[in-house]
Structure formats: C-alpha cells, structure tokens
C-alpha cells in the first residue's frame, strides 16, 4: 500500500491518473462570467 499501488490515492498521485479514489475537481462557473453587464437587451417597440 503506497506509491506503487494502483488503488490508493498516493498511487494515483504517483502515476498521475484519476479514478474513484482521486476524482477530478470540476471548475465551477461563476455567475459573473455567465451574465455580461456590457450587453444590454434591445427593447422592441
């Protein structure tokens, strides 16, 4: 159980892989990036 073990977190870090023991951290989308303040909606007459 250590660096050579495929199933442990330390082994995943050593190999540079991901899995159930070391899932990838997903980037969260910030609300500021979704809404553009610069863009203004056009008003229909």
From TrEMBL:
Keyword Transmembrane helix among record annotations: no
Family: Belongs to the bacterial ribosomal protein bTHX family.
Basic and acidic residues biased stretches: 30-45
Chain intervals with Basic residues compositional bias: 1-13
Pfam hit, one: Thx
Record keywords, A-Z: Ribonucleoprotein, Ribosomal protein
InterPro entries xrefs: Ribosomal_bTHX, Ribosomal_bTHX/bTHXc/bTHXm
Organism, scientific name: Olleya sediminilitoris
Lineage: Bacteria, Pseudomonadati, Bacteroidota, Flavobacteriia, Flavobacteriales
Highest taxon of source: Bacteria
The protein's name: 30S ribosomal protein THX
GO cellular component terms, semicolon-separated: ribosome
Annotated region (Disordered), positions in chain: 1-45
Keyword Aminoacyl-tRNA synthetase included in the entry's annotation: no
